[in-house]
Design goal:
This protein is mainly beta and about 160 residues long. About 5% of the residues lie in helices and about 35% in strands. The chain contains 1 helix and 10 strands; from the N terminus they run βββββββββαβ.
Length: about 160
C-alpha cells in the first residue's frame, strides 16, 4: 500500500485581496502587472524552499491556464510584491521563474471578457529543486513530488 505523509497546514493570505476578493488593477495585465505580496503562516521548520504556481481557473475552452511558476524562493513568512522579471531572481536567493503564459515572469490577470478566478498555490518544500528555467507547471509539479511539506492557496477574481 502506498503511504503519503500528512502535510502540515499552511495559510496563505494577501494584503492586496481577501480570499475570493477582487485582485487590484495594479496586479493585472491592464496596469502595472506586478505580483502581489503573499503572507505565509506556520511554515515548517523542515522547509528548504518555496514554490508558487498561479493559474487562471476559468479559461473558456481550456479550463486552466498557468500564468506564473516560480521555485527555490527562500524560506520566509512572505513572498514579496513585485518580483522582478527574468528566469533567475538574484534578490530572492536565485529563485527561478519558469515558463508561465510563455514568459519568465509574473503575468497577471487580463481576461478578454467575463469574470475569472486566479489561484495562487504555494508549496513549502523539503529541498531546493534542480530544474531548468525553461520548465513549466508540469515539470515543476513532477519535481516537487515527494518533497512537499505544506500546501496552501488563495484565490482572487478579476472581471
Amino acid at each position: 500500500m502506498f503511504f503519503k505523509p500528512k502535510q502540515e497546514a499552511l495559510t496563505v493570505t494577501s494584503d492586496a485581496f481577501a480570499e475570493g476578493g477582487k485582485i487590484p488593477i495594479k496586479h493585472t495585465g491592464r496596469a502595472e502587472d506586478i505580483s502581489p505580496r503573499l503572507e505565509l503562516s506556520a511554515i515548517s521548520e523542515k522547509a528548504k524552499s518555496i514554490a508558487v504556481i498561479m493559474d487562471d481557473l476559468d479559461v473558456p475552452g481550456l479550463g486552466i491556464l498557468t500564468h506564473w511558476v516560480i521555485w527555490n524562493l527562500p524560506v520566509q513568512n512572505f513572498i514579496p510584491e513585485n518580483i522582478p522579471n527574468g528566469e533567475v531572481v538574484p534578490s530572492l536567493g536565485n529563485a527561478v521563474q519558469g515558463i508561465g503564459y510563455g514568459k519568465h515572469r509574473y503575468r497577471g490577470p487580463n481576461p478578454p471578457s467575463g469574470s475569472h478566478r486566479y489561484q495562487f498555490n504555494v508549496y513549502v518544500l523539503g529541498k531546493r529543486l534542480d530544474l531548468s528555467g525553461n520548465s513549466g507547471k508540469k515539470e515543476l509539479l513532477k519535481g516537487m513530488e515527494g518533497h512537499i511539506l505544506q500546501h496552501g492557496s488563495i484565490t482572487g477574481r478579476f472581471e
